[in-house]
Design brief:
The structure is a homodimer. Chain A is an alpha+beta fold. Chain A is 30% helix and 26% strand. Chain A is built from eleven helices and 14 strands.
Amino acid sequence: MSSAISPLAPKTSPELPPVDGVRFATAEAGIRYKGRTDVMLALFDAPTAVAGVLTRSKCPSAAVDWCRDRLPGGEARVLVVNSGNANAFTGMKGRKAVELTAKLAAKAAGCRASQVFLASTGVIGEPLDAEKFEGVLDDCASRATPDQWREAAQAIMTTDTFPKVATVTTTLGGVRVTINGMAKGAGMIAPDMATMLSFVATDAPIAAPVLQALLRKATDRTFNCVTIDGDTSTSDTLLLFATGAAAARGAPQITAPGDRRLAPFRKALTTLLRDLAQQVARDGEGARKLITVNVQGAKSERSAHRIAMSIANSPLVKTAVAGEDANWGRVVMAVGKAGEPADRDRLSISFGDIRVACQGARDPAYDEEQTSAYMRGDEIAITVDIGLGRASATVWTCDLTKEYVAINGDYRS
Amino acid sequence: MSSAISPLAPKTSPELPPVDGVRFATAEAGIRYKGRTDVMLALFDAPTAVAGVLTRSKCPSAAVDWCRDRLPGGEARVLVVNSGNANAFTGMKGRKAVELTAKLAAKAAGCRASQVFLASTGVIGEPLDAEKFEGVLDDCASRATPDQWREAAQAIMTTDTFPKVATVTTTLGGVRVTINGMAKGAGMIAPDMATMLSFVATDAPIAAPVLQALLRKATDRTFNCVTIDGDTSTSDTLLLFATGAAAARGAPQITAPGDRRLAPFRKALTTLLRDLAQQVARDGEGARKLITVNVQGAKSERSAHRIAMSIANSPLVKTAVAGEDANWGRVVMAVGKAGEPADRDRLSISFGDIRVACQGARDPAYDEEQTSAYMRGDEIAITVDIGLGRASATVWTCDLTKEYVAINGDYRS
């Protein structure tokens, strides 16, 4: 783990209010790390609606398989997440480890195994010794309190340099509801329907199928717009829990995806997920600069997204930004390789508000000195206008530094 | 430019015999670099059959556009290549620069502009001052000799640390023919129907349409199997010239792609292109290890190739190899993200001859020490058996080191 906090970490981190119906505890199970927490348990006081989006990797972790099988049930009582070991590519042992963890969690929470949700993050290919959870989960359940969101976010960190939490409040049928969330990065991040790990809970009374529809849509514009290294994880898991506790305060029970009362909630959920997604980009391994890639004027949203991802995943664009070089030539290269409709002679490229290129060549008004000053900042926006249509997309990434290489050349050994 | 030669450079470099009908000269045109050659001219004594594969980038360089328009003519008299400036994303100025270069080259060679082929490599987005070629190309044409293959390969280098040349001899209708080639890398390498720049010439009398068919097929198994950073260049150009001079020694004129006498030539051409392609991987920016990725047991060749490329382009796999870590978990991740048919529980993964994982989990016989010793070598083979079919693919890449980041963070400034 890196010791220094990312220079891009948010300057302030919010206090998270409780979400009625969910409590947390963390512990040191000794999975891999020493002297830090590595397991968190979230306890739902009553059966809670759950939705999730999971990695589309063809080689998912055992915990992802478990969640995929349980999500159609739509009901959760407990969530257990460990760091230090991803329990991925661990074969039959991995499945047994998941089953044992679920059994221990169900016992701790006093629920059925089908109401248990699990996630693991850390090294791939090493067996996870789930017996280490024996006793630990019981103890967590007995200690769980509503005010430990930040501690929970800390327990699931791997190479992250800061815990990622966010909170928003909104209304449902005129009643105030809360959405809290946490996420972890920080490498192997190119979410494909979810990010590495993120857990969100609300007290809004929303049925699981509605929750699922909301979550999938919000994910496409948030977590699926982050990439650190183009490497999609085996463990991507985003779960959204709705305890429904706000019903006691008069919030309506929402059971139809088209319910108009959902509008503010939908917007608030997207805001929260975007906040967490950007925090993941800010804590990309070795990151020194946050890069926002805006693509406009594309033929379709899908095309805009693909071009934006091609730019955000280009090692040459990312190293240029690390070197504080407004190298628009590499942006052109990345547009060109995306395979999407583009016409060199219609492209415009800006860094921040400075247009460096237009109509297939350098902007005549380009000022090297002004641009260099901009590139020394720690938040860089690259905007590309394709000039062919009206669709747009925004994605977030970070620069590629020697530190990324150092972190990933030394991680396992 | 890096000063030290890649530790992966071939220990010996062949002497290239002349290819009858083609002569070279190089010069310092002062495009960008100081104190080194930056332009090479290849002169064909008679109209010469030409075939080519060019980048599929949607934003190709002006020289690529030029070649694409001239290739259907199938006839070359002169080739001009400069380094230091790619003349890509240079708009109308770029087209004018190409036209002026072609005019000067045609004058120097005493041919039509349609018989001129061009390529440029170097920085993108800066105007190329083609007036610098005035006089220089005439002088080159007057000095051209058949023995300057290596000097020509040197003149087209950018961040390359060594010139890349190769030679093979074969027979055509029982008559000995020669194929010589050169290539340059060393970053922005993920060829999509060609690599950055490569030029090959033979004295075999083979008609242009036949040459084109041979070249496209051979490219798919050679240059299209190399990736340094997944970044496809705007300038990828591979040209194959056949002077036909061997006809004077009795070689038959080949005009049909199905001609059986082509068999040895086809094989020799593939061998030569593979040699050059591997040299490109050996000189990848910052490379310290050559990585050969073999994928076996896939459902189709296309699927095998995509999985192999997903592994070879993964920053996490490449940094692990840089760190001498046999991190098969990251190989699993890269297989999983490729989106191709794969089944975690059938995967086998080997580093060299050491099987580290089988049937979805660590190989019980895995020996950390033996594997570590293997990973300290400078040539690493990663073999993945998908276990679903019989198709295979091999691709070449290099590790991702801090040096890559340094080279590309400092390149333009």
